[in-house]
Amino acid sequence: MVKKRIVVKIGSSSLTEKDGTLSPLKLAKFCHAFAEVKKSGHELIVVSSGSVAAGFREIGYSSRPKTVRAKQAAAAVGQSLLMQQYRFSLQQYGITPAQMLLTKHDFRNAEHYQNIFESLSELLKRGILPIINENDSTAVDELTFGDNDMLSALISGVTHADMLILMTDIDGIYNANPISDPHAEKYTMIHKISEELFDQTDTSTTAVGTGGMRAKLQAAKAAQKMGTAVYIGTFTESETFAHIAGFRGGGTYIVPEKEKQMQTYKQWIAYHASSHGSITVDDGAAEALLNEGSSLLLVGVQQIEGKFDKGEVVNVYSSAGTLIGKGKAADRSEELQHLKSLSSPPSSLVVHRDFWVSLHNSNVKEGRYI
């Protein structure tokens, strides 16, 4: 058996009763499945929703709240209750859980990003089960983040996971909504997530979740770009996570575009780093960057905008205005502007190929992941 690193994302709809409250029985069944996969020798990271479901009744709401402020209050109370339930259910298997609460801002800071990787690596080394959730009580962005779908994809990337398993209440990706269309057909294996596929997916959400199948596809595309295989399907006790990781599940698999996973620092440049300026390049430079693995030289630069220092990240655009990639600037913007203004500009380095990431045809918009 090949040891694998698996990230499992559990949405609110998979952990709750019909009235929106947390289901201890459903959570306990997941914990049994976690124990089975760890017993098989695999490494496991869990990204779990459920804090709002666990807390809203505790603060006097009769049903799941709708407003941001109320959800944040429920999450603040419910997160400790959620972890208490996980700890109770896991202790019979001798598994110690560890809580980690994150926001998108933790990914945008390079030092914090590295700390996420190191902390999770140490926990896995010690046999601890990391249970991660968005910091719902402070992160307003979370409420439109896709019910932790994108968070789980980013965690898969930073930890170089072999597979991301997205648990949902529909058993895979279909070419139409299987609930309303009896002729809808399921995809068993997807190699490329196209715009057509996005158009086919349903954008609706459940009453207890903030994500939909479209959000899961966006997360899957991000994980795929970073070199992680993705599985989307429902949870059944007869189908173990190890079984799914062995490509024997009944849902939909999205396979990575490249066998080699994206390096951690390139993931940070591509999907998290704030851009401090922009550079427009000519067609020859764009071709060299995208298809020849070359560095960007000043001779191929048409325009430099913004003020940035050496080592800061910049967006790079084609002459048509399309974002083609991001990279670390090899020099200050003022110096580059000065050199470019000379009658015979030198072939100075603008972005080295080791600090360049191509983003052509990706879901990145203006330097941030959608």
UniProtKB/TrEMBL annotation:
<dbReference type="InterPro" id="IPR019797">
    <property type="entry name" value="Glutamate_5-kinase_CS"/>
</dbReference>
<dbReference type="GO" id="GO:0005524">
    <property type="term" value="F:ATP binding"/>
</dbReference>
<keyword id="KW-0963">Cytoplasm</keyword>
<feature type="binding site">
    <location>
        <position position="9"/>
    </location>
    <ligand>
        <name>ATP</name>
    </ligand>
</feature>
<feature type="binding site">
    <location>
        <position position="148"/>
    </location>
    <ligand>
        <name>substrate</name>
    </ligand>
</feature>
<dbReference type="InterPro" id="IPR005715">
    <property type="entry name" value="Glu_5kinase/COase_Synthase"/>
</dbReference>
<comment type="function">
    <text>Catalyzes the transfer of a phosphate group to glutamate to form L-glutamate 5-phosphate.</text>
</comment>
<dbReference type="Pfam" id="PF00696">
    <property type="entry name" value="AA_kinase"/>
</dbReference>
<dbReference type="InterPro" id="IPR001057">
    <property type="entry name" value="Glu/AcGlu_kinase"/>
</dbReference>
<feature type="domain" description="PUA">
    <location>
        <begin position="277"/>
        <end position="364"/>
    </location>
</feature>
<dbReference type="InterPro" id="IPR015947">
    <property type="entry name" value="PUA-like_sf"/>
</dbReference>
<dbReference type="Pfam" id="PF01472">
    <property type="entry name" value="PUA"/>
</dbReference>
<dbReference type="GO" id="GO:0004349">
    <property type="term" value="F:glutamate 5-kinase activity"/>
</dbReference>
<keyword id="KW-0641">Proline biosynthesis</keyword>
<feature type="binding site">
    <location>
        <position position="136"/>
    </location>
    <ligand>
        <name>substrate</name>
    </ligand>
</feature>
<keyword id="KW-0808">Transferase</keyword>
<comment type="pathway">
    <text>Amino-acid biosynthesis; L-proline biosynthesis; L-glutamate 5-semialdehyde from L-glutamate: step 1/2.</text>
</comment>
<feature type="binding site">
    <location>
        <position position="49"/>
    </location>
    <ligand>
        <name>substrate</name>
    </ligand>
</feature>
<dbReference type="InterPro" id="IPR036974">
    <property type="entry name" value="PUA_sf"/>
</dbReference>
<keyword id="KW-0547">Nucleotide-binding</keyword>
<keyword id="KW-0028">Amino-acid biosynthesis</keyword>
<dbReference type="InterPro" id="IPR036393">
    <property type="entry name" value="AceGlu_kinase-like_sf"/>
</dbReference>
<dbReference type="InterPro" id="IPR011529">
    <property type="entry name" value="Glu_5kinase"/>
</dbReference>
<dbReference type="GO" id="GO:0055129">
    <property type="term" value="P:L-proline biosynthetic process"/>
</dbReference>
<protein>
    <recommendedName>
        <fullName>Glutamate 5-kinase</fullName>
        <ecNumber>2.7.2.11</ecNumber>
    </recommendedName>
</protein>
<comment type="similarity">
    <text>Belongs to the glutamate 5-kinase family.</text>
</comment>
<dbReference type="InterPro" id="IPR041739">
    <property type="entry name" value="G5K_ProB"/>
</dbReference>
<dbReference type="GO" id="GO:0003723">
    <property type="term" value="F:RNA binding"/>
</dbReference>
<dbReference type="GO" id="GO:0005829">
    <property type="term" value="C:cytosol"/>
</dbReference>
<keyword id="KW-0418">Kinase</keyword>
<feature type="binding site">
    <location>
        <begin position="168"/>
        <end position="169"/>
    </location>
    <ligand>
        <name>ATP</name>
    </ligand>
</feature>
<dbReference type="InterPro" id="IPR001048">
    <property type="entry name" value="Asp/Glu/Uridylate_kinase"/>
</dbReference>
<dbReference type="InterPro" id="IPR002478">
    <property type="entry name" value="PUA"/>
</dbReference>
<keyword id="KW-0067">ATP-binding</keyword>
